[in-house]
């Protein structure tokens, strides 16, 4: 399964409306695809497996600290992990794998009227990654939490 993932999505879904209120997107571009083995051996890069692991860890940590840039989500939200595969790859089936593959629908990851918030970018020559979040302009937040939204960015007295 190497080199077949184009994007990884983590939609945050409001269970009351069954619609995404946020969607985190990891966009992965490898410039290795299409290079011959000889070209790969001759290609100089400063990135190795440990570096990739460190970059991925820093991307995941960025998700945990980005709540200050986003409005609060409604209570009772769930999340999913979805992948977009390269078009040239045959879609895997549950029969081929040890875990079940479920075909996702575009509506499961489409955020209504989104605002785009870039979170992190990494360019290591042959590997490029971006992390951004799409946030719904209007989230169905209960009245008891509206003060949290309106007070965001203000210093306490």
From TrEMBL:
Official protein name in the record: MAD2 mitotic arrest deficient-like 2
GO cellular component, one term: zeta DNA polymerase complex
Segments for region (Disordered): 137-157
Family: Belongs to the MAD2 family.
Recorded name of the encoding gene: MAD2L2
Domain HORMA: 1-133
Species assigned in the record: Rhizophlyctis rosea
């Amino acid at each position: 399964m190497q080199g077949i993932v184009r994007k990884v999505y983590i939609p945050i879904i409001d269970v009351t409306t069954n619609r995404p209120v946020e969607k985190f997107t990891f966009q992965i571009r490898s410039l290795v695809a299409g290079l011959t083995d000889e070209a790969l051996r001759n290609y100089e890069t400063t990135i190795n497996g440990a570096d990739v692991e460190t970059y991925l860890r820093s991307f995941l940590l960025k998700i945990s600290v980005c709540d200050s840039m986003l409005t609060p989500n409604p209570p009772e939200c769930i999340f999913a992990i979805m992948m977009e595969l390269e078009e040239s790859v045959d879609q895997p089936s549950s029969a081929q794998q040890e875990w079940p593959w479920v075909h996702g629908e575009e509506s499961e990851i489409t955020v209504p009227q989104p605002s785009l918030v870039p979170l992190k970018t990494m360019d290591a020559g042959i590997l490029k990654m971006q992390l951004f979040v799409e946030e719904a302009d209007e989230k169905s937040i209960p009245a008891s939490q509206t003060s949290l939204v309106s007070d965001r960015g203000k210093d306490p007295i």
